[in-house]
Amino acid sequence: MKKLLYLFLFFQISVQAQRILFVGNSLTYTNNMPEILEYIGKQQGITIKTKSLCFPNYAIIDHINDGKLQKLLAKKQFDYVIVQQGPSSQAEGKRMLVQDGATIRALCEQYNTKLSYFMVWPSVRYYHTFDKVIENHEFASKQNNSLLFPVGNLWKEYNTYKGKQSLYSLDSFHPSTAGSFLAALTIFYQLHPTKNLQQLPFKKYKKWVADEDSFNLLIQLVQKQ
Fold first, then answer.
1. In this predicted model, what pLDDT tens digit does every residue of 154-202 receive, in sequence order?
2. What is the pLDDT of residues 64-99, one digit of tens each?
3. Which residue in 13, 81, 111, 129 has the fewest CB atoms around it within 10 Å?
């Protein structure tokens, strides 16, 4: 009887777990951001299971062309497919976000999965293109009736504050651990907006955000999105 109870509880947890497939490149897999998302969920009593299909320098079209995405979707059910490519501030990047995103949306609909966009950020060198990065991601998500995780929006706002832990790594493009934490927290909160992020204890997240003032600012910005 006890064994049956354990099996039932395990089945319930498995069914209720959010299953997320990340489709992107190094902006997603740096610092193992999906694992940070799983950790945040676990600390909040929420099971999040992630799978990453992310390769260096890949755009959405590359994932479509190599066929691994289609096979993975056909093999395993996901609740969300979160796509990410480069900043996409130019016209060609916008076209790819919209058109290639539409191709993946059709696949998602076939497998009862929700398409979502992970809005990224430009490199420091091309910081002046940030508004276009935001605009093109917002346009693509509306065109494809998809969720949008506005990491780029929050990244830009955070950078208006001085003296805080950098979201950029040393190459001035990839995320630092704090940048990856911001991405994971943004995704988590949009999926679970009733959670009070103010209750997140700094000491459990300091391996990603070493400065407590910076941590509190990130919490504040994400909570008000």
1. 999 999 999 999 999 999 999 999 999 999 999 999 999 999 999 999 9
2. 999 999 999 998 889 999 999 999 999 999 999 999
3. 13
The distance from CA 56 to its chain's CA centroid, rounded to whole angstroms, is: 16
Q: Identify the CA nearest to 68 among candidates 14, 95, 104, 94.
A: 104
The one-letter amino acid at 125: R
pTM strictly above 0.85: yes
Structural domains in the chain, CATH included, are: 18-223 (3.40.50.1110)
Q: Taking the CA of residue 64 as centre, how many other CA atoms within 13 Å lie in the half-sphere pointing to its CB? A: 18
**CB contact at 8 A, 212 and 140:** no
Going by their DSSP bridges, the two strands 18-24 and 80-83 should be labelled as parallel
Q: Pull the structure tokens for residue 104.
A: 């993946």
CA distances from 207 to 53, 132, 176, 181, 215 (A): 25, 32, 11, 10, 11
